[in-house]
Write the structure tokens for this entry.
Amino acid sequence: MRRVTQAPIHFYRKVISPLIPPSCRFYPTCSMYALEAIEKHGAAKGTWLAAKRIARCHPFNAGGYDPVPPVSGGKTE
């Protein structure tokens, strides 16, 4: 399931991202964050974390260093 969830992100990074100027306000970039979140937390929670991160990526947010939170016990997907 992770690969299926990560496929659109890889497509975005390879095809769409080179066509537009960089605008992510965070490090790591939102697409890298999404890939790492899905890898660490599974498809469902990783996608949720990525969506929350993308919602914060706008001109009124200062941005900066924002790593994927560590896995806190329990199972991942």
User: Anything to note?
Assistant: The chain has one domain: 2-65. The chain has a mean pLDDT of 88. The helical segments are 2-16, 30-41, 43-56. Strands lie at 26-27, 64-65.
